[in-house]
Amino acid sequence: MRFDTSLQQRMSMKQILAPRMIQSMEILQLPTMELSEHIEQEWEENPVLGIHDGAMDSVIEHTPLEAETPAEETREIENEYEEFADDWDDDRAEFRSTRSQGSLDEEGDRKLDAMQNMVSRPQSLQDYLIEQLNFQELEPHLENLVRHLISHLRDNGFLPELQQVISTYPEELKPGELEAALKILQQFEPPGVGARDLKECLLLQLDQETPHRETIRNLILNHLDDVMNNRLPLIHKKTGLKLEAIQEAIEVLKQLNPNPGAGFDTASIPYVTPDVRAELKDDGEFQVSVVDDYLPDVYIKRSWLERVKRKDIDPKEREYLRKKIQSAQWLIEAILQRRSTLSKVTQAIVEHQRPFLEKKVEHINPLKMQQIADQVGVHVTTISRAVDDKWVETPRGIFPLKRFFGGGTVTAQGEEVAWELIKSKLTELINTEEKANPWSDDDLVKKLKEAGYPVARRTVTKYRKLLNIPSSRQRRDWVEHS
Question: Does the pTM of the predicted model rise above 0.85?
Answer without folding.
Answer: no
